[in-house]
Structures are given as C-alpha cells and as structure tokens.
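Input record (one chain):
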Amino acid sequence: MNDLNNPELIDPVEDPNGPFDALEPKVIYPDGVKGTLADSIQHYVQPEVTESVVERIQSELPKPTGEVFDPSGDNLTLTEAHSDRKISRMERWLGPENFRIMKGLSKTWASRIGFALIVLFALIAIFAPLIAPPVGSDPYMMPRDGFASQPKGPGSPWTKNVPKIPFWYKTVTGNDKWVHLLGTAQGQYDIFYGIVWGTRTAFRTGFIVEMATVLIGVILGSIAAYYGGALDNVLMRIVDVFMTLPYIMMAMIAAAVLTPKIGKSLLPAMIAMIAFGWMGYARVIRSDILSIKQRDYVMAAKVSGVKNSRILFKHIIPNAIFPTLVLATLGIGSVVLSFAALSFLGIGTPLGYSDWGQILAFARNWINNLDKYWFIVVFPGMTLTMFVMGWNLVGDAVRDVFDPRMRGRGA
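The corresponding structure, as predicted from the sequence alone:
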C-alpha cells in the first residue's frame, strides 16, 4: 500500500477515462485525486518535507574549493583563444590579404631563389648602360672586334669598337683596358655585351607577348563563357583548330612571312607568337567563368538590371582571373625560350642583335669543337636557363598562394 506521507512511495496509475494530455499529463492517485503532477506534488508534499529534500540535495553537491573563475586574469582558455600577435607596419600598409600573399610568395626557398634571379636580371637590364656602355647608334647591336670567324676565349684583348671603361671595370677585373670577359662568338661578337643587353630583349619580348596573349585569351574566353550558345561554339571551335597546329612551327612560318613586309626586327616573331599563343588562356578563363556565372551575386546583378558588360568585367572576370595569372607567370619563361628558339633559327632579329638565342646560333658551326670553344654555349645557355627557371619558380609560388588547396602547407 502506498504511504501518502511519503512522496517517494506514491504509485500513480493511468487514468482509464482518457489519454494523457501532451502538455499537462493527467494522472489519478490512490485517494481519487485527479490532476496534474504539479498539483499532486503540492497536495501531498508538506513544506517541511520539501525543505528536508532540498537540504539533502544541497549536502550532496560538491563544495566550492575556494578558486574563483576570473575571466579577466591569466586564464589558459582565454590565452589559447585570444592571440596577442602584433600587426606590423607592413601588414597595416598592405592590408591582411595582400600581406598574406606577400608572405606566401616568400615562404619557400624555391620562391626566394626565383625572386632573387628575377631581381638580378631586372637590375642587369636597368643598369645595362653602366655595365656594358653602348657602342654605336643602336645599343642593342653587339660590337664586333673584327670579322674573323674563329671565336676568341675569355680574357682575350679587345682591339676594335672598344666601349668606354665603366666605373666598376678596373676594381672588378684589375685591368685598365677592355678585354672580352666571356670571349667572342663567331664573327667576333662580344658575348658579355650580348648577354647584358640581351636581358632587356628578354624582358621586352616576354612581357609584351605574354600581356597580349593573356588579354586576347581572357576577352575571347570570357565572352564565349558568359554568352554561351552559338557564339561559344564558334569561338571554341576556332580555339580547337589553332591548338591542333604546332606552336613553334606556325610561329616560324608566320614570322618568316611577316619579316619581308615588316623588316628584320623583334616585331615579326612577337606578332607570330601572339597569334598562336592565346588559346590556352581562353580555355582556362572560360572554364572558370562557366562556374562563376552561376553564383548568387551574379544572378542578383542580372535581376537588378546591371548591363552584361559590367557584370562580366566588373564582377566575373576579377573573381576568375587568378588561375590565368598563375599560368601567365609561368608562361613568361616559355615565351623567352620560344623567342630564343626562333632567333636560333635566324628568324626575326637582325644579325648581331643582342639576343641570347642569336648568340647560341653563332655556335652552330662549332658544335664539334665545344671542348675548345665551350664558352660560346655555356655562358648564354646558363643565362637563358636561369632566367626561365626564375620565372618558373615564381610561378609555382604564385600558384601555391592563390590555390586554396595549398594554403597552410609547409615547404
């Protein structure tokens, strides 16, 4: 039998007259009282019983140890959650995102070597008149020390068309007169002069060709991806046709056709390389825009009545251009290498122009005697290799920074 004075022994039974209410469950107790659980507790439990239960519960609770939680003091949790990293002046000036990019570009040894090589070549190009004072009216034409076909070795005396002595020459070499520091090529063209002034040629051709190809590819690829339909099909079929053609061969043919009309200069080879070098950028930007044009902010701009040209150039291209920029950074070295190949074949540049490919071309007749005339290949070849390697290393670093999958990975 249930003891009504002891609430722990009360045995409630289900009301046979109706189901429980979902919010106020109804129960009937042995004495016939019907109501909610709260009402029954108030009916049966006496105040002194309630106080004894509360005292028992309080006695079972753990007693305080005397330690007071002070959120303002030295707290391990707050120390771990809150960073006291100081913001440098450079970060304030560049902004957090630009500072992250700059930090990422200089994080690995490969990127540092790449930037060091590019800076080195940039300084050589800027101070070329001080390193190798120009001779004649056109500074890009390599001076000739006679017309003999046999190359001269490094350190041989310079007797004809001698440049002025620069301020650094005597301190570095210890000589009062010019000598061929790196030797001469076939026809007595000075290799040192050609390498120094050829740096300007490399930067000029690399930047102009790369910027033109990126601009053409981005415009055509963006238009094809954004408008779609027949326009997309036509432009992409043109891209497919151009990509089936061998790049070097078509550039060589186009440059050979343009040279008689334009003349011997850098333009024929550069125009030919631009005409057959934009397709890769068009495909890359098109694939990115196909996904970005479905984003919510693009749809909102269309619904708001913004012009298509503004949506494309203001909202879509800035968010899709980063993979193309990475590819363009890697492409500068390839452009210089391709231009050197065309110069090696005798296409474009006039004879004696300061270009690394043409200096290598002067060694064609001496391939069988490289054990003696090694310098006509080693010096221009190493220069070209380091220039291309510098841009490739920087391109890898740019890819790692802009690719979200590469963030947070160590070198």
